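in:
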């Protein structure tokens, strides 16, 4: 039986990780949240984790207040401790006890300004006589090997976390994801998902304004938890992985699909991101491309599943 430590166990993703690993008798799950361990305290991290010596450490704890992170030095420092330095502390103890570290990052490590375009297999970039592009529909976005270039402080703290994890252990899985939704977190003060917020507005407003100038992918927390377990169980090569549900859309398109599935008549009005007063700049295009794993189901199917289980 493998001993696995899940940190951030009361979060939206954390609770799904606990559920999926507890369902497998091959794992003994230890579920900790912030009241059990302050991951920004390096000494406490080393002492407490060394006592239980898990074979796998999953860190799903994170600072996610993107705009608040821009408010001042205090918030930015806190975000750097949780998102940036703490993964390094976990990586150090993981290396010391021989454990594997799983850490989650974000599409916000990319700028949105220079996405890559997928080429067909065998392309030699000599197009005069090439037939490979005929009928080929390229994917546009960021691969696991794309160069990060965050444009807000939150993204910078998440990139720091990636760097600290990689610097301090070789046995790591860094899983980048985007726009997580699922059952509300049990942790106090946890952030609500986009779909929950928009669903509530749709029930009491005649119209809602939603941004139509930022494109990325949604990720259903149970799907992400299952894929995480798949990566671990199949002993994938250590490194960076992109895990999001298939398909890309804007916030506006996602709201339209939500109301369509729930048969809500509220009008959805598309707006540009500049119409909202937000302190943090967001990438206009941050679709994560997965080149290493079998793809997850379409986000619309996952949303349907979520709404069915929510009722």
């Amino acid at each position: 039986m493998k001993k696995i430590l899940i940190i951030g166990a009361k979060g939206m993703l954390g609770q799904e990780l606990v559920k999926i690993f507890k369902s497998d008798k091959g794992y003994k799950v230890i579920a900790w949240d912030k009241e059990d361990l302050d991951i920004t305290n390096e000494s406490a991290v080393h002492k407490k984790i060394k006592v239980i010596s898990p074979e796998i450490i999953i860190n799903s704890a994170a600072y996610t207040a993107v705009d608040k992170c821009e408010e001042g030095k205090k918030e930015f420092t806190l975000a750097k401790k949780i998102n940036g330095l703490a993964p390094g502390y976990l990586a150090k103890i993981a290396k010391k006890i021989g454990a594997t570290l799983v850490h989650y990052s974000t599409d916000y490590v990319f700028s949105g300004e220079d996405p890559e375009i997928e080429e067909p297999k065998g392309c030699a970039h000599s197009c005069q006589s090439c037939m490979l592009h005929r009928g080929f529909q390229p994917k546009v976005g960021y691969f696991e090997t794309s160069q990060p270039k965050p444009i807000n402080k939150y993204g910078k703290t998440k990139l720091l976390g990636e760097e600290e994890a990689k610097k301090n252990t070789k046995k790591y899985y860094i899983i980048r994801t985007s726009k997580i939704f699922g059952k509300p977190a049990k942790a106090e003060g946890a952030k609500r998902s986009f779909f929950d917020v928009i669903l509530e507005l749709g029930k009491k407003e005649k119209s809602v304004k939603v941004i139509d100038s930022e494109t990325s992918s949604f990720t259903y927390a149970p799907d992400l938890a299952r894929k995480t377990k798949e990566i671990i169980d199949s002993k994938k090569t250590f490194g960076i992985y992109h895990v999001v549900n298939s398909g890309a859309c804007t916030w506006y398109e996602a709201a339209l699909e939500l109301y369509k599935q729930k048969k809500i008549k509220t009008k959805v009005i598309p707006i540009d991101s500049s119409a909202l007063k937000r302190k943090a700049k967001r990438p206009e295009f941050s679709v994560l491309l997965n080149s290493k794993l079998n793809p997850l189901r379409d986000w619309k199917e996952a949303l349907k599943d979520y709404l069915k289980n929510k009722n």
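note: The mean pLDDT is 93.
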